[in-house]
Amino acid sequence: MNRAQLTVAHHMTADGVHVVVLAGEIDHTTTDLFRQALTAQGGFAPHTVLDFRAVTFMDSSGINVLVAANNAARAGNGWLRLAHTPKPLAELLHIVGLDDVIPLYPSLEQALAPQTAA
What we know:
By secondary structure, the protein is an alpha/beta fold. It is 31% helix and 33% strand. The protein contains four helices and seven strands; from the N terminus they run ββαβββαβαβα. The protein has helices spanning 31-37, 60-75, 87-95, 108-112, and strands at 6-12, 18-26, 39-40, 43-44, 47-58, 79-83, 104-105. β6 (79-83), α3 (87-95) and β7 (104-105) form a beta-alpha-beta unit. The longest helix has 16 residues, at 60-75.
């Protein structure tokens, strides 16, 4: 059986945004690593950007982690944003309605930019 692989790199920006860069597959075999990548100091960071440019697959277990991270960020008056979401993943997020809840940005720079109220 071939296990999925997921690699993670993360850092904090100068203004306290947790940036997580993911590569590979997010499924039931990598969910724990994905969840751990989203936590900072024992909990979800209030402001997080996920760079999905090198993610090749995500199933419902990844969706569940995204929902939990988004809920935790909002509970702490924060936010979760996704950058560079490949078309197949963007379509999945649209099907489950998460693109209405978690904003998708075409670039990391746009996801990190301060957002103005509409």
